[in-house]
């Protein structure tokens, strides 16, 4: 699994080298078409700054949104080029094409330490089809390939998997960028060699999307804490009435089987916060898990559960968290998630490694004000789940093997 890393290359080796970088600059745009949240751009800066300061000639690729394999002005990377230039505090050249003479000319005239961004990879139908012909063209843009796009590492696309294989077949190297390496270090480290106690917390909307993660984590963790709507299906499997809560009835048998297998390591809510409707102005009642009325819905874990979970988390040396404990987007159902977030921050402060994955979970960490207190917040939603479930990620598999690791 040890992959070649950008951090293993010297500045001298990068000086004057044409380096093709695949980043994840898939940022949200506002109504005026400007970047409304530059988190992903900032996450890409360490790799880009390392390369330009070493004097590399950087050709940068990314996708944005889901255009249908044809150019679509609504998904142009032009505003991203402007936001990237501002974040880097350096000029960013932009060519509104992915392939063609103007691209070739721009690459030829690129100077040492300069950066060129090409147009959205998904404007070309060959991208998601992982067309070898497109991979070959892209492979011609650099003598070294750096993949820093963890968020798309679970997809075998021409600008991720295809180009890495092409460059390696031609004798070149394909390495993990600084951000990707960080993801591998923290997510991979939690799975392969966690310091114990290792406590995982899972929540969110559905058990079905995360069943493989539960399966992969169960034999590795000391404790698996389950909250969110995911817990409802388990509560149903234990025979508790969950009223009109969000559940997956077709997963109850599976939940029961997991409970039997997990024994004491799997901990479910002992109480919940319920309301007649999940709404921003809902009146909330705390109920024991056996006390949910038929007309009620579970919107959050209860205060006793919050304490139970927080105690486990604070005692941990490794904490892995994916999925909010309740409908944290609405104030009445926020407390369980905030409680868990604060406990994770406390664990961090006490020296534990705390890793958070998932788009909504990252938003929840912001809401709870602990985003800067955790060890690592993964930039990949689907990719982090697949990685945690133990699935090989094509974008990572395709990279060169590392030495002496
Ligand atoms: P992530 O993006 O972090 O992987 P998910 O997408 O799996 O997380 O789940 C997040 C969603 O789960 C949130 O929108 C939240 O409102 C919802 N959720 C959590 N608990 C409940 C619940 N008890 N009932 C309904 N929805 C819930
Ligand atoms: Mg989500």
What do these coordinates show?
With 405 residues, this protein is of the alpha/beta class. It folds into two domains: 6-180, Phosphoglycerate kinase, N-terminal domain (Rossmann fold, 3-Layer(aba) Sandwich), CATH 3.40.50; 194-388, 3-Layer(aba) Sandwich (Rossmann fold), CATH 3.40.50.1260. It is 37% helix and 15% strand. The protein has 15 helices and 15 strands. The chain has helices spanning 11-14, 39-53, 78-88, 101-108, 132-139, 158-169, 178-192, 211-217, 228-237, 252-262, 303-314, 335-349, 359-368, 382-388, 394-397; strands at residues 18-22, 57-61, 93-95, 115-118, 144-147, 173-176, 198-202, 223-226, 266-267, 271-275, 285-288, 297-301, 318-322, 353-357, 376-377. The strands form three sheets. The protein has a six-stranded parallel β-sheet with strand order 3-4-2-1-5-6, with helices on both faces. Helix 5 (132-139) packs across helix 6 (158-169) and helix 11 packs parallel to helix 12. The mean pLDDT is 95. The protein binds adenosine-5'-diphosphate and magnesium ion (MG).
Strand order of the largest sheet: 3-4-2-1-5-6
Any ligands, ions or cofactors bound here, and which? adenosine-5'-diphosphate, magnesium ion
**How many strands, what sense, and barrel or not for the largest sheet?**
6 strands, parallel
Q: Which structural class do you get from the secondary structure elements?
A: alpha/beta
The proportion of residues forming helix, as a percent range, comes to 25-40%
Strand content: 15-25%
Q: Which regions have little confidence, pLDDT < 50, spanning 5+ residues?
A: none
Mean model confidence by pLDDT: 95
Query: Any idea how many domains?
Result: 2
Quaternary assembly: single chain
Distance between the termini: 9 Å
Question: SSE string, helix = H, strand = E?
Answer: HEHEHEHEHEHEHEHEHHEEEEHEHEHEHH
CATH class category name of the largest domain? Alpha Beta
Remind me, CATH topology of the largest domain? Rossmann fold
């Amino acid at each position: 699994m040890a992959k070649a890393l950008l951090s293993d290359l010297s500045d001298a080796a990068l000086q004057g080298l044409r380096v093709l970088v695949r980043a994840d600059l898939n940022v949200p745009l506002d109504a005026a078409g400007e970047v409304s949240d530059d988190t992903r751009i900032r996450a890409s800066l360490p790799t880009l700054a390392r390369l330009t300061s070493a004097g590399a000639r950087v050709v940068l690729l990314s996708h944005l949104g889901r255009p249908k394999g044809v150019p679509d002005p609504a998904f142009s990377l032009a505003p991203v080029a402007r936001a990237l230039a501002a974040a880097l505090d350096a000029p960013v050249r932009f060519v509104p094409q992915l392939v063609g003479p103007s691209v070739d000319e721009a690459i030829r005239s690129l100077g040492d330490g300069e950066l060129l961004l090409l147009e959205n990879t998904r404007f070309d139908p060959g991208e998601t089809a992982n067309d070898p012909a497109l991979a070959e063209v892209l492979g011609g843009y650099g003598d070294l390939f750096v993949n820093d796009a963890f968020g798309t590492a679970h997809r075998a696309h021409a600008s991720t998997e295809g180009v890495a294989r092409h460059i390696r077949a031609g004798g070149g190297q394909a390495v993990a960028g600084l951000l990707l390496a960080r993801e591998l270090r923290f997510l991979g480290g939690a799975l392969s060699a966690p310091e114990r106690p290792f406590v995982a917390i899972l929540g969110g909307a559905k058990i079905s999307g995360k069943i493989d993660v539960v399966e992969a984590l169960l034999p590795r963790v000391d404790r698996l804490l389950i909250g969110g709507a995911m817990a409802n299906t388990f509560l149903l499997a234990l025979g508790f009435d969950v009223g009109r809560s969000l559940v997956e009835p077709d997963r109850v048998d599976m939940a029961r089987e997991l409970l039997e297998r997990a024994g004491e390591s799997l901990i479910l809510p002992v109480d919940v916060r319920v309301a007649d409707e999940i709404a921003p102005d809902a009146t909330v009642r705390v109920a024991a898990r056996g006390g949910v009325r038929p007309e009620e819905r579970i919107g959050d874990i209860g205060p006793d559960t919050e304490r139970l979970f927080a105690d486990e988390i604070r005692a941990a040396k490794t904490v892995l968290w994916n999925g909010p404990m309740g409908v944290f987007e609405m104030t009445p159902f926020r407390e369980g998630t905030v409680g868990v977030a604060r406990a994770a921050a406390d664990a961090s402060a006490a020296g534990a490694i705390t890793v958070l994955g998932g788009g909504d979970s990252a938003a929840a960490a912001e809401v709870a004000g602990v985003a800067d207190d955790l060890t690592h917040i993964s930039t990949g939603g689907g990719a982090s789940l697949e990685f945690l479930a133990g699935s090989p990620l094509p974008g990572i598999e395709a990279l060169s093997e590392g030495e002496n690791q």
